Amino acid sequence: MRIVVIGAGGIGGWLGARLAAAGEDVGFLVHGATLEALRAGGLTLLGPDGETVARAERPLASDDASSLLDALGGHPDAVLVTTKVDAIADLGPALRTLTGPETTVISTQNGVDAPHLLADVVGAEHVVPGVARVYAQAVERGTIALRSGLESLQVGESDGSRSPRVDRLVAALRVAGLRSSTPDSILAELWRKAAFVVPQGGLGAAVDAPISELRTTYRDAYRAMIQEIVDVAAAQGHALAAPGEAPYADQVLAFADEQPADATTSMQRDIAAGLPSELDAQVGAVRRAGDDAGAPTPVHDVVAGVLGPREAAARG
Hints:
The protein is of the alpha/beta class. The protein contains 13 helices and nine strands. A hairpin with a 5-residue loop joins strand 3 and strand 4 (52-56).
């Protein structure tokens, strides 16, 4: 497949390195120091123990979408958008250049807004939501480190139908060594992931704590924030726990109990560093969805009230 990865941070570098190492025709749309790093030193994916698990020696990389099209020999089959949600608006011209009649644009961001924002840019018919589950972090430009063995990307049509384009993408991801599948409802999967990532990042940033403290000292507040997302999803028609399963908030806590003690989210790290973050795209999106569906989100409201001023200061 011809694949363009937009971004080469934790998610983009992970996916791009895996797909390139598997023999796919991968190009990266990146800028500035990241572009220089890929051209000078290639792209390296490290495993949890520091070993190299995938390597792209001379990856195709450019800051110009038209140049990537020329180098790839035409429009890509797939575009993986791995930037932050708030970067999507600025990506509009590049996305429209990259998207041909048969191009699939896959969202990978945390939260539930990205598929809708991408649809506004390139048209809903091109967009396939994706749900990435991985602990991957850029330790330096061009070097990505996996913090656990979890490497999964689920993709699916928004309406729950099966399609050849999704089947083809799932096959390519599996060859690249990822656990990939098409769930019955990719939108429900977006909410399932949000129930894990948003409380961890939001509450973790508010109390400046890794997951080890959230699942112990702050466990009650952590569970309450998870439950709010479960309730909002249910109000929008997405039951996150299957019949006969444990309550979904309990499932999330059980999963959290198994994670590395020092685990934090990218949003949490951005806020701690005083950088612009996805606070609005994650915590804000849950609050807006709750308001629309009539589902209260008091813990999210408190977290937003604590972190909002920090976010405003970071944005200048």
